[in-house]
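Q: Start with the shorter request: fold the first protein.
A: Done. Sequence, then structure:
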Amino acid sequence: MAAAPAPAFIPHAPLEGAARVWGTVALSAATFMNVLDSSIANVSLPAIAGDLGVSATQGTWVITSFAVANAIAVPLTGWLTQRFGQVRLFMASIILFMVSSWLCGLAPNMTTLIAFRALQGFVAGPMIPLSQTLLLSSYPRAKAGLAMAMWSMTTLVAPVMGPLLGGWITDNISWPWIFYINIPVGMAAATITWALYSKRESPTRVVPIDSIGLALLIVWVGSLQLMLDKGKELDWFNSGQIVAMAVVAVVGLAFFLAWELTEEHPVVDLSLFKRRNFWSGALATAVAYGLFFGNVVLLPLWLQQFMGYTATQAGMIMAPVGLLAIVLSPVVGLTVGKFDARRYATFSFVVFALVLWMRSRFNTQADFATIMIPTIIQGVAMAFFFIPLVTITLSGLPPERIPAASGLSNFARITAGAMGTSIVTTVWESRAALHHAQLVESVTQGNAAAMGAINGLGASGLAPTQVLGQLNGIVNQQSFMLATDDVFYASAVLFILLIPLVWLSHPQRGGAGADAAAGAH
């Protein structure tokens, strides 16, 4: 089916006065709700897993299912916008997000929750790019930078609020309410958006969809993520299921690449990878985000399972990550066009490496302040991360290719975040098992410290089996502490190794990339 010719589009006049203020509030609230949901469940994972009778590691599927479905939906935003219009699609995204949030809260078991989280992630796909588009149409061209700075603030505040809100709700009400709170926010955002923007709809036209490309995308990304999520549970490649998933992922990817490179209207424009700045920027962003997100999930898991922290306390540790990011991001946004973005990105990776190295020095005696200090410093790395890397990735592209490039780079980043979560938690548990075996080997009669601990526990009135149980608990805590340090240290090294990738790109100042940089999140 050939695409219908695009109707002439006359841009709408910017909103004025109170209408612009309310429009900004409504669009920001929708974005806030969306970004909040990517982080609010992190500190609630142990409670969700315990309530639904699965391990905490299986609980991470609550995060990865949302991320994978969200990543698959992002490249569809352009086609859906042309087919249904910006405002109608944005409204549908908000309403379906509320419905899927309600279903997540009602989920009776982990399988159902994962299915509803995947639905929630999929319908959320168009929300963030369309909130940017509608916000820019609300402001005069001269104030576009202000509009994007305000939009970026929302995406930075939400990760701060997510862990705090998620922890407090989990400890004081119950975990389903981390999903139910989206309903009043979504209703307010949808009502105001429809009142202000319903008569500002973009023109629509019938355009072909690359249904085969989309199906192949779902098959290979879904198989790969399932393989990563279930690998440890099924003993990796000793399992026929895991081997089958790996084969489907590899074959699916091969067919996907072959199809997309020859399709007239591809769901993913792979020709963008011919540009050095695009592939180096997108790859550096994806790998770095995978490392960052994996460690963001790991820290509250370790704190709650092995350091005795409540969900609220873990949220308080995680929350300050956005404080310095909120302060510094506007500065980065204003200056990235005047300086070499590669220097900013390099600085970000060095600070990330420093933060993770500091965390790799933790031990079981680490107090609240010691654990929080690297989180505060990490805000500096976040401020210098998104905007410069998007500037590099999108630099030199003509305006008509920026939506496709932004969609593809966001797809890579979100997918890498989901995979990073699975890989980090898998490595964490396998390293803990190794350390546990090594520590148990050292518990012998010749080890004075071990004998002293056993004698001390026995003297307190515990039976021999209780002594062994207590000792195993101590060994378990230490083995997971050592595994946590291993993951943090390896992640720090990988951030340093990513720096040369940034410098493979050509230097760019200003241009399309800088203009779009505020929408990096």
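Q: Next, the second protein, separately.
A: Sequence, then structure:
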Amino acid sequence: MTGSTAQQDSSGDGMAPAPRESWPKFPWRTEGLAAPQEPSKRGRWWRTFLVVLLYVGVFAALTMQDQQSQPHSVAYTEFKAQVRDNNISEIFATGQTIDGSLRSEKPVPGNENISYTQFTTERPLFANDNLLSELEQNDVTVRATPLVNERGILVNLLIAVAPIALLVLFYLWLIKKQSGALGLGGFAGKKFQPVDPERVRVTFRDVAGIDEVESEISEVVDFLKDPAKYQAIGARPPKGVLLSGPPGTGKTLLARATAGEAGVPFFHASSSEFVEMVVGVGASRVRELFQAARNAAPSIIFIDEIDAIGRKRSGSLAVGGHDEREQTLNQILTEMDGFSSSEGIVVLAATNRPDVLDPALLRPGRFDRSITVHAPDQTGRLQILRVHAAGVKLARDVDLDSISRITTGMTGAELANLVNEAALLAVKRSHPAVTQSDLLDALEKIQLGTVRNVVMPAEERKRTAYHESGHALLGMLEPGADPVRKISIIPRGRALGVTLSTPDTDRYGYDENYLKGRIVGALGGMAAEDLVFGVVTTGAESDLQTSTHLARMMVGRWGMSKRIGPVQILPEEGDPRAAGVSEGMLDTVAEEVSALVDQCHQRALTLLNENRWRLDSLARQLLENETLDEQQIYEAAGLPRSSGSGLQTSERQPS
């Protein structure tokens, strides 16, 4: 399931975007509005620099003023000299400390570059001079108050506290700048601007290949369009709809199309945006999100990757980020219980892991409905290709139906990437339009990897040709196997050669004989090397991984071993010992897996030995042409073309 990725930017529809001041700094996005312009990093740098410069300037000015107001300390002999020269204007004495000022400025003794007018000195206790009479003779004013008036309490408090206050304000400013993204401030008083429904860009016309999903979610769309008819009969529409499925199947696009089809505001948030190190931020964001949705009701809230915060809650020992995640989950549960169906709010959520979600989240009254979005079938793939190809110029030889048949298992996102890769390849080749060869080459690049410029020795090249021919021949000989589409000994990605097998029709269940045939085909490369050259190389690593995995699943999960019986031994996740599986049972599984793989390997050797001339013919043609397509493969092997129903890719890795 997917939809067209070609969308018109809302800023280009002739409507002036909303002023930046009216945009709230919420952690979610709204569909259909032009994104606010972020302030440039250069402007932020200048603001920071000016704040620091202001702090330094004010602190320096206060310090200099305080230093300038202090009188200069001079020796008592210097003071007596100024008294004799009649240069003392007035003094203030406290005990033996004398503060005063000169009639005219004098240089500091020993430092002619510095002069002073105000001074302070200490009169020695042993001084036996008649200082007061000398001062009176020179008309010196002796004051009972300080020469320099002491500053008031408020001024002294300001000078003492100002540097610390400026430092605290500076740090608060930094914290505010950093906490803007955390949601710790700045949200209060900001009014959320609802979305104009006419500017929502995606509808069900942009979605293809999911007819059954559209019918499931049509009730939500109908309720949002006309809630009165549901209320009149007493029907309660679902509060929440959970979309689950593999990545790339179009869950997010489906949610946006639902909002576009209903013509209501659409709030899009990712679960990871709610969880922060600061406890309580996620819960606060959830409250803000639901409140904004209530203000814009009827509306849709879409939470992507909800498993990030909706996992099953742990015990009382959870701390830190886990505690914050659980608080966020609890807030979501509370909010979904807190609004009624009459408010016109529907919560959509998407996840790739519905099995890990908390049961409280999935109970009726919260997420009432669960919709599984699967990878599209052949008809769905054809519809998806047509949607994505609508904006691409195609040549007349393009056959999207044939492309849809050989892309089994591909999701909507992968099909969109296929069309785009073909368009890029057409531009690179200077084609006026995308041709069928462009699409096939793009598919080959996606499935097999990018071609590497590696020159292999003749012996290595021959061994690779027999390795890939062994895969292909066994795929053609095994009953019900997938048709072989292409063989190549051109190095691609990590592989020195690749054999591609894809089905003609989709298949959703596999029997024991088919799976054994898959293992035989996977071991064909190693068996061919052993039969022809008498050696086993490391190039069969990928094949052994595939065959061992299939054998382990057949024995331990799918009940295809008579010795084990219809029992699932290997869980999907975790250690089987935690589920009570004994060591003896695990040893039995290992023995059965080894026996099954060895049995398939012996069958591969037998089939290749019986059809040695076909193997030699395939390898010879492959060495001459490097790449063989489907028709050339079957002609070289002397076998008729048969239909199959699976998907298999075998590759030989470098030794």
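Q: Describe the second briefly.
A: The mean pLDDT is 76. The longest helix spans residues 41-68.
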